[in-house]
Specification:
A two-stranded antiparallel ribbon has the order 1-2. The chain has helices at 23-55, 85-94, and strands spanning 59-63, 66-70. Strand 1 (59-63) and strand 2 form a beta hairpin. By secondary structure, it is mainly alpha-helical. The protein has one domain (13-94).
C-alpha cells in the first residue's frame, strides 16, 4: 500500500498519445491492467480478512444442560487504503510503466 499523497487530476486523451497504436487500444490496455490491479487488491484483502476471521470465531463450552458462549473482544479489522484500480492503471500508462505485447 502506497500511503504517499497522489496528485489528483483528470486524465486526457493526450496523456496516452503515443503509448499505443490509438486511443482505443490504450483504453483496452488500461482496462485489462485495471482488472489485474483489482484482483491483486482483492487477494490482499482476502488474505488479511481470512486471518482476522479465524481469530474472531466463538468458543462454545457445554456446561451441564446450558451452553455458555464466550466471545473475545474482536480485534479491529485492518484498514485498506488502495488507489482505485482504473486510476492506478491510467497513471501507469501515462507514465509509461505499462508494458504489453500481443501473442503471435
Amino acid at each position: 500500500m502506497n500511503r504517499e499523497k497522489k496528485e489528483k487530476r483528470a486524465f486526457l486523451a493526450e496523456d496516452f498519445h503515443g503509448r499505443a497504436e490509438n486511443i482505443y487500444e490504450a483504453i483496452l490496455i488500461i482496462a485489462r491492467r485495471s482488472r489485474q490491479i483489482g484482483e491483486l487488491q482483492k487477494r490482499q484483502i482476502d488474505r488479511a480478512l481470512g486471518q482476522t476471521e479465524m481469530l474472531e470465531q466463538q468458543v462454545v463450552e457445554p456446561v451441564g444442560e446450558e451452553t455458555e458462549v464466550h466471545t473475545e473482544e474482536p480485534e479491529p479489522r485492518p484498514q485498506f487504503h488502495f488507489e482505485k484500480p482504473a486510476i492506478q492503471a491510467m497513471r501507469e500508462m501515462a507514465n509509461e510503466k505499462t508494458k504489453w505485447h500481443y501473442d503471435e
